[in-house]
Specification:
The chain is built from ten helices and no strands. The chain has 224 residues and is mainly α. Helix 1 packs antiparallel against helix 2, helix 2 packs across helix 4 and helix 5 runs antiparallel to helix 6. The longest helix is centred in the first third of the chain and has 32 residues.
């Protein structure tokens, strides 16, 4: 993300991409992990709270290496939220909802950011100005990143939240077969992501969410 902006040579895009990267590290990832912690707590597990993770303080959620990776290439990680599934009142429901909470929070945040982008684009005083363009860049780029991370995390494979949701519905035999081959699956996924083979369909799906949220965000203004 940031490297792509630097390559473009567009100073405004570089500045907004840098701000969006910082926003991602200090806001999007912490909100994602807080959502996991909050849902786990609501489902009966006090582990996240006892370990200080039931907080929006970014410092308790940031992984330094993952943060640098996110800023440079848009793919990284935060500190995983500790969860003890045995504490859930309903284990299967608790696992699925706790896993889904992170990506859902990213989608909702992405929608909110797109709404702000649309809102500022309708302020006539900012229309066509560098400030207006910069604000639009920031909110829209941040929204795209948040939505892309949601789509990425919903992949039903090890390493991602989607697999935690999937495991509720698959047999124990299938689960253990996948886990035995987790290392090979993880390496294959990383290769596919960095080669662009997997990122293209993910980007397409994310763009569909962006289009949907943009259309919904435009509705109030079209009625004025």
């Amino acid at each position: 993300m940031l490297l792509s902006a630097i390559t473009s040579g567009d100073m405004l895009r570089i500045a907004m991409s840098l701000l969006a990267s910082l926003f991602l590290v200090f806001c999007v990832i912490p909100i994602h992990e807080f959502a996991h912690a909050f849902m786990a707590y609501k489902m009966g597990d006090k582990t996240p709270k006892l370990q200080g993770r039931l907080s929006l303080n970014p410092l308790v959620h940031i992984d330094p290496v993952g943060a640098v990776m996110i800023a440079l290439i848009g793919f990284g990680w935060g500190r995983p939220t500790p969860v003890n599934e045995r504490n859930f009142k309903n284990p299967r429901k608790g696992i699925a909802l706790t896993a889904a909470a992170g990506p859902v929070s990213n989608l909702l945040l992405g929608w909110l950011l797109i709404f702000f982008s649309v809102l500022f684009s309708h302020i006539s005083a900012l229309s066509g100005t560098v400030l207006g363009t910069g604000i639009h860049y920031f909110f829209f780029i941040s929204a795209e990143i948040s939505i892309y991370l949601a789509v990425l995390n919903l992949l039903p494979i090890p390493l991602f939240d989607g697999f935690r949701i999937l495991e509720v519905f698959i047999s124990d035999k299938t689960y253990y077969t996948i886990m035995r081959n987790q290392q090979f699956i993880s390496i294959a996924i990383i290769v596919l992501l960095f080669s662009g083979i997997l990122t293209r369909p993910l980007a397409l799906l994310a763009s569909l969410f962006v289009s949907l949220f943009t259309t919904l965000s435009e509705l109030p203004f079209s009625l004025l």
